[in-house]
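Input (MgtE intracellular domain protein):
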Amino acid sequence: MYLSRIIGQPVFDPAGDPVGKLRDIVVTVRSANRRPRVLGIVVEVLGRRRVFLPITRVTSLDGGQIITTGVLNVRKFEQRRHETLAVHELFDRQVTIVGSVSGTVYDLAMEQDPRRDWYLTRVAVQEVGKRFGRRGATHTPEWSEVMGLAEQDSAQGAQHLLSTMDEMRATDLANALLELVPKRRLEIAAELGDERLADVLEELPESVQVEILGVLDPARAADVVTEMSPDDAADLLGSLPPASAEQLLGRMEPEDADDVRRLLTYEEGTAGSMMTTEPVVLAPDTTIAEALARVREPELIPALASMVYVCRPPVETPSGRFLGVVHFQALLREPPSTLVGAIIDDGIEWPRPESSLAEVANLLAAYNMVALPVVDDGKRLVGAVTIDDVLDHLLPEGWRETGPEPALEVTDA
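Output:
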């Protein structure tokens, strides 16, 4: 059974209820000549938590249907020294097949022996293409016929590993990277596209963000920072030495750099330091049909799509005079030809850039909102604070590394 068939597939209990998704296979690599024994699987449960399930608790892998005994220990998986993650650590290894054929590992097969123990038995290897744009020949030799899998420091890319992660949300991919040793984490980050890497960086702790940014070429690092939300980019650059931050800002497009520089001027823990400068800003003569088209844009997070902000021109932050907001539900209630200026809500004392975290949190809670406009003393819109950024500051430091705590722990009897 090749691992690419089962990675990412749902894991079920005996009653057929899903308990999580299979994210990796844990094996013990003893030598180049002895087949690695499969110890268990890594299952992602409860959103982001990854737990270990011994292979003896897996009752079926037929047809990609992963069924367990139903007994699950939900303590967070911690890799031991003798354990290897087959997908994250062996995929994309540069290896040599007996006979001097070199290539890259793109899959692994595991088989069950008569005693019902599972082992990695075959290695799917793709040769380097001899002509530009052409893929090389593929081979599936036995484990013992491949050199380069038992060595810890073998060259390794991430192309085939990332193909197993295409459908993972940025938060889940960030969580997966946190589980890896720094060397492998940096290898994978280097293979991600700029936009995808930017999304993942936004979900990582600042220390890991800096670690990854530090190994990128300065020009590419600037491109990645440009793809980040301005508020997240400002948080990241604020944690860098001033000279490094200024170097990156100098490589960014002037308009993007100006937004980030403006956010860096606000004191930590204020509305200004948490806000994004890219909410949906519309002129009052915009129709509801146009407003709905704007909030349907896929790159908008749900909190930013919850309302539009109506201002006199210019309609980029800092805008002309801020007139008020129109909630998404209000857009749905009115005819498409209605102008947004006719249904504005401006009955709240909106936060200023210097407003504290507590003041912003109180307003969100009091008015049951997931985003708030931030206006300056001249009644201009300068940005919007979303609830995810408020929670990011309210949760304990380091919450991204620990992930959510399980509501219920079921352990072996």
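Residues 404-413 have pLDDT under 50 and may be disordered.
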